[in-house]
Structures are given as C-alpha cells and as structure tokens.
Structure of ATP synthase F(0) sector subunit c:
Amino acid sequence: MMNVAIGMIGSKAMESIGRNPEAAGKILVPMLLACAFAEAIAIYALVIAFSI
C-alpha cells in the first residue's frame, strides 16, 4: 500500500513540474521528504508487526 502512496506522490510532483517547470526546485525537496516519511511509516509498521 505504501508503494501506491509513494507512486502517487511522485506522479503528482512530476505532473506539477510539467505544468510549471520553474517551480521544480520548490516541488522536488518536499516530494523527496514526503516519500521518505511514507517509507519510514512502512518500515515502522514492519518493525512493530514483527516485534509483536
């Protein structure tokens, strides 16, 4: 499920950059942070699931 979220984040970011290429610098960093947080949540869920 998290892969879908990360894919949607990337898709919408690329769509936004396609519409407004000048904003690429302002879009790229928040996109990478959002992907990192989404991935971290998945890792925490796995750690909790296997520790129970």
